[in-house]
Task: structure prediction
Amino acid sequence: MAKLSQYLTDNRTTQRDFAARLGTSASYLSEIAGGRKTPSLELAFAIERLTAGAVPAASWLAGFNGADVAQEDEKGAA
Result:
C-alpha cells in the first residue's frame, strides 16, 4: 500500500525496523506495503497506532481515499 510505503520513506524507517515494532516479519510487511497482502484488522490498527494515524486502519478498505475520514472529522467538529 502506497500510504504505508510513503510513511516509511518519509520517516526514514526500514521495513525491517517497522516490522519488528509491529511484531511481524519484514517479508510480510513488504507484502502489505506492496499491496500484495491485506493486514488483519488487529495489524491494521497496530499500524495506525505506530504511525500516529498517518496510515489509518480504514485505508486498507477498498475504495478508501482519505477524504472520507477528513469529511467525518469536519462533521464532528461542527
Summary: DSSP finds five helices and no strands in the chain.
